[in-house]
């Protein structure tokens, strides 16, 4: 028998394998009609389809074609993060006459900085022009030392190595790191400022019944002085109002400890909060947290209907209470996993949602009391300039931050097979990440971003981007005579931010980021 088998030539074995595959395709498997009808060759279709995204990304798509982030955008982040040449030669390859294209109106003569100006000393110095918690006189107000920061992404959706890189990176860049709703992990504790974020699962501050535990939050803030503010998640752009289940199989001992849940048991994040059921109760909840911790408290949401926001604004006017900051997430926002029906259609894109919300708060005279944070593909200096012109005070970035530490936009965050090790719990894949190197990359991306935004600001004749007004940015509606400034497009004027000088921001008592 053995000598018969060894006498079969190599091509004979290939033939036998193909015959076996054909038998399986025709007689055994029932799931795939194409394989049944076209045995053997039918497999080629499935294989080509599976490598289609990579083929399109590497060879077919043009520079400006892909979504969520096209090649030019990704390359700009990669080059900025590595401090490489991030310029483009020969002029823009973008169709600047295209509909919705943004133009920033430059001044005849740029803003001139003096010899001792903070930006003459550090070109990347760009803190937030407003102080979180100042209006409500919180015991520990906080001025973010960077206008660009890391948006909510949990340990669990990102790997331990990625979270560690981000935290070490924000420390270098003087920015803050939002924990995401998975709790505060040891990987968030490498010295960067942290905004502790929680959602309906109350991970990290969860009572035994699955509700919110104030005792746990007070303790968490006490033993982790780098926590500078609290963010309550109402919704996020990629899946507003959608609850979720964390399967027991994914809950390791480490995850269970950090999130405050049981090992191996499914955990539900319901669509609604248990700690409050309506807007007045939410305001009371915010005040109780601020009172108990002394920290500024904000809310994060994607925008759709405005009735409950109006109720919130009315309560804020009547009582002088309410959130210290509001993070507006755009419908274009990212996530670890969401059904396409939600990600594609539920909630407004950032510009529409933010302009609706800002106008509403401004009409009630509230815009100066609130620090407005924007997220939703805003991690590019010109887009940020537009966001500041519309009333944003800070920018949060999630996927752009991921890319700066090596994410290649493989779009497989939901499979645990992220090839770059950023969005996976697979030890082998994440071991490719060197947190020391990657933290430098995040910090360098943030610094380059701030430097370019400062330069755009100076080109427009201002000292700080908070001085951008709606009329400084135009949006193309096909002809210059028809192109409209933001104030005529979105029908409001931004409330001027009471900015005095960059030096005053530098000297501020509440400036975060441990900048010396
Ligand atoms: C992997 C991943 C995990 C996220 N986790 C959270 C989360 O825990 N809570 C939350 O409010 N938003 C979460 N987000 C949304 C981001 O914080 C951010 O609002 C959104 O992606 C828009 O920012 P971007 O366009 O810069 O990515 C997550 C996004 C990503 C990509």
From TrEMBL:
Belongs to the glutamate synthase family. This is Glutamate synthase domain-containing protein 2. GO terms for molecular function: glutamate synthase activity. One of its GO terms (biological process) is glutamate biosynthetic process. Pfam families: Glu_synthase. Coiled coil: none annotated. SUPFAM superfamilies: FMN-linked oxidoreductases (SSF51395). InterPro entries: Aldolase_TIM, GltB, Glu_synthdom. Residues 136-462 form the Glutamate synthase domain.
